[in-house]
Write a structure and sequence with these properties.
Elements lengths: L1 H15 L3 E9 L10 E4 L4 E4 L5 E7 L2 E8 L6 E7 L6 E5 L26 E5 H5 L6 H4 L6 E6 L3 E6 L7 E5 L2 E2 L18 E8 L3 H4 L6 E7 L7 E11 L4 E11 L3 E12 L15 E14 L2 E12 L20 E16 L3 E17 L11 H11 L4 E16 L6 E16 L9 E15 L3 E16 L14 E19 L2 E12 L3 H5 L1 E4 L4 E4 L7 E13 L3 E25 L2 E22 L7 E14 L12 E12 L5 E12 L15 E14 L2 E10 L24 E9 L1
Parallel strand pairs: 1-7, 11-14, 29-32
Antiparallel strand pairs: 1-4, 2-3, 2-5, 5-6, 8-13, 9-10, 11-12, 13-14, 15-16, 15-38, 16-17, 17-18, 18-19, 19-20, 20-21, 21-22, 22-23, 23-24, 24-25, 25-26, 26-27, 27-30, 28-29, 30-31, 31-32, 32-33, 33-34, 34-35, 35-36, 36-37, 37-38
Length: 756
């Protein structure tokens, strides 16, 4: 009690302490011209402004202490400096150096708020505005543009990320600062998040259990929500999209207003797609999907106190394609299909002291997953849609899964020596309950309790950085029995606990003025999920009878990651290699038996190894700053110790893009861009046990866009063509590959966005 009282007094004293201000000017280093629309931002405080026509800025409501200031603008190298705020802060004059290298952002998924080039751990960061230019109909499809990231897909409406050959419960998804829990153990369970209202995405490739605990064994997909408007401003925008292949439409509109202390934003999005066409103009029956999405936020900041309350509601209705049947553009899903709802509520509170801060993140995720299936054979293809629509309204769901999750994350960060030494200690955990109300079950009713303790330090030297960390986790799973003992579908009760110690060490060094080297060693773990422990029934989405193994142990891995980066005036080059050793890898394999016509599969364990890497090249010759040639290649090889290749390993992928950009063509045309891309997937000749080989194929993409004034407001126009040559192909990571169903053919999309 005495400790709590002392902490409370310190926090109260901090909140009552005087607030500070910082002002200054941003200039072009080449000619000292003022820079308008430069972003001046304190990432840790989430407080910043945009410079005016004279390059001036003025930031208020700042606490005492030392914080990193980042100044950035398109066409200039980012400026970063630690600023000590006190009673009398001098006016700053900041000069930005022109640069053709893309604007850097602060990495949020790691705790020390470093720029990409300063971070010890290699993290890929991509603004959603850039991803959307490609014209992908969903967020999961758009993420494939990041080297080393692929998607396991069921048609177009259902997709989930694959990072270096690992997916499902081995890749953790974070949104609004909390872990997304939506029954993600199943391959046909999609991402469940709309790209509307997402600012950027960060990808940690490799074990991140030190920061996030179980399920981050393979990596983390971290989605940063839309920022609030700068203080003293109001913003509104609307976007409309059309996708030719699916006759799809998508639209979203958002608005936000920020005062000196209070901030508010809201965004509503809607998407609706018919069945997609393959390269042979055949519509893939029941690949249709629709989605509603609402995101809101309320923020408050005053001196040493900051609070951010966010809420996201998402409702999607994807069909599950199984065979080619009814041809048309109807949008009502046929059987089987899913109805999925998610409520994501998070609250982040931060207290700032002179050389330390306390962050408290609390979250709730409520996920409802209903699956409707065929219960009888229909008369024929012609009236199949009519019968399906009747059952849509009359039949109850075969699966009715409810998952409620409470998250907490407490992090105390202190920097006794400023930026030279920073340490974070944390307490994280969750309470989760799974329940079933349908006529069938995939996993039993159960409760999961997680708790984790972690500490990590970042030490900065003159030309290098060192990061070390330790963590301990415990997970407790209790489940109820289902069925009658002795019957074939009986599932016994579970009472299991899983423990794990993990460590990470990373070193970053400036090998030369433009060359950075990174070496990271990290361990990770994943406790088996309910499906792997307790399944005993038909999984219609996967067309198989699954049997769990209640004696499964933790998956544990150690990964070594080595990277070299060169960033010069004319080109950039990055090479990143990894070796990932996983003990007790959990996989599902056929037993050779059948149950009521479905093949029987059982979960097993064996050690496994994955290795490979990515190479990235970017040419931007000076003075032709408008010209960009980008290329990246990703390689992953994975196999069990027995020599059997792991399933769902993406083939070698090579992407090449020629891009042109002009900030201003005329007084009425700004931000013009155009691109032509070639995406090559090589033959996958090492399929898993129940997979088949996939031949090589090439996809051509193209697009262009610009900004022009309309009624005094900027209007962004973009057009993109995916699979421009209408190639007929089946991706290796398509879950409907076994049914001989092709992926999407040519898709031409048109987008309009207006900012008010």
């Amino acid at each position: 009690m005495r400790i709590l009282f002392t902490i409370g007094c310190l926090l109260l004293a901090g909140m009552l302490h005087a607030q500070h201000e910082l002002q200054g000017r941003v200039l072009d280093a080449s000619d000292n011209a003022p820079l308008e629309q430069a972003t001046v931002y304190f990432p840790q405080l989430e407080n910043g402004v945009i410079t005016d026509t004279d390059g001036n800025f003025h930031i208020r409501q700042l606490p005492e202490g030392t914080y990193k200031l980042v100044v950035s603008m398109i066409g200039y190298a980012a400026f970063t400096q630690s600023i000590t705020l006190g009673e009398n802060n001098p006016s700053l004059t900041i000069r930005l150096r022109p640069s053709a290298i893309e604007m850097e952002e602060v990495i949020v998924s790691t705790p020390f708020h470093k720029l990409q080039r300063e971070n010890v751990m290699k993290v890929e960061q991509a603004p959603l505005a850039e991803i959307r230019k490609n014209g992908s109909p969903t967020l999961a499809e758009g993420l494939r543009q990041i080297a080393g990231v692929e998607t396991v897909s069921t048609g177009v409406g259902i997709g989930k990320p694959v990072i270096r050959g690992l997916s499902s419960n081995r890749v953790l998804v974070y949104t609004q600062g909390i872990r997304m829990e939506n029954q993600q153990f199943g391959d046909e369970h999609g991402l469940g998040i709309s790209d509307a209202g997402i600012e950027s995405v960060e990808v940690i490739k490799g074990p991140a259990s030190l920061l996030y605990g179980s399920d981050a064994l393979g990596g983390v997909l971290y989605l940063n929500p839309q920022r609030y408007a700068p203080a003293g401003t109001a913003q509104a925008d609307a976007t409309a999209l059309y996708f030719g292949n699916t006759s799809g439409v998508a639209a979203n509109a958002g608005a936000g207003v920020s005062g000196e202390k209070w901030k508010f934003l809201a965004r509503l999005a809607r998407a609706s797609h018919a069945d997609y066409q393959d390269g042979g103009d055949t519509r893939i029956t029941n690949s249709r999907f629709s989605e509603w999405d609402l995101k809101t936020g309320v923020g408050y900041a005053s001196g040493r106190f900051k609070n951010d309350l966010r809420y996201n509601y998402n409702r999607s209705e994807p069909g599950i394609p199984e065979e080619i049947g009814v041809q048309g553009t109807d949008r009502t899903p046929l059987l089987p299909y899913q109805e999925i709802e998610s409520h994501i509520l998070s609250n982040t509170t931060e207290f700032f002291m002179k050389n330390s801060s306390l962050k408290v993140i609390l979250g709730y995720v409520g996920n409802s997953r209903l699956e409707f299936e065929d219960h009888e054979e229909h008369a024929g293809e012609e009236d199949g849609e009519e019968h399906a629509e009747e059952e849509h309204g009359e039949e109850g769901p075969s699966l009715d899964m409810q998952l409620n999750t409470l998250n907490y994350n407490l992090q105390y960060q202190f920097s006794p020596s400023g930026d030279s030494w920073q340490t974070v200690v944390g307490l994280q955990g969750m309470w989760q309950e799974n329940s079933n109300a349908g006529e069938e079950i995939l996993v039993p009713d159960a409760r999961t309790v997680d708790v984790g303790l972690m500490a990590t330090s970042h030490v900065h030297f003159e030309k290098s950085d060192l990061q070390l960390g330790l963590r301990y986790d415990r997970r407790q799973i209790d489940s109820d029995a289902f069925g009658t003992p002795g019957e074939s579908e009986y599932i016994g009760p579970l009472d299991r606990s899983f423990n794990s110690f993990n460590a990470a060490a990373g070193y970053r060094i400036d090998i030369a003025p433009r060359v950075i080297g990174r070496l990271n060693l990290a361990s990770g773990f994943r406790a088996p999920n309910l499906s792997e422990l307790g399944s005993n029934g038909t999984h219609s989405g996967a067309n198989r009878f699954e049997i769990g193994n209640p004696d499964l142990e933790n998956e544990r891995n150690v990964q070594a990651d080595l990277s070299l980066e060169y960033k010069g005036e004319h080109f950039e080059l990055g090479i990143n290699g990894f070796h990932n050793r996983i003990r007790d890898f959990i996989f599902i394999a056929p037993t050779g038996n059948t149950v009521e016509g479905d093949p029987e599969f059982q979960y097993r364990q064996q050690d496994a190894t994955l290795y490979g890497g990515e190479a990235v090249f970017h040419l931007h010759p000076h003075p032709l700053d408008w010209l960009h040639l980008q290329s990246n290649v990703a390689v992953v090889i994975g196999e069990l110790d027995s020599g059997t290749p792991l399933p769902l390993i993406p083939p070698v992928n090579w992407r090449n893009t020629l891009r042109v950009e002009w900030d201003k063509i005329s007084s009425n045309l700004e931000n013009f861009y155009g691109f032509l891309g070639l995406e090559t997937y090589f033959r996958q000749g090492r399929p898993g046990d129940f997979e088949t080989e996939t031949p090589a194929y090439n996809l051509v993409h193209a697009g262009l866009g610009t900004r022009l004034p309309l009624f005094g407001n900027p209007l962004d126009i973009r057009i993109a063509a995916n699979n421009l040559l209408d190639t007929k192909y089946i991706a290796h990571l398509s879950r409907i590959k076994a049914d001989g169903i092709n992926n999407m053919g040519r898709n031409i999309s048109l987008g309009l966005s207006m900012t008010l």
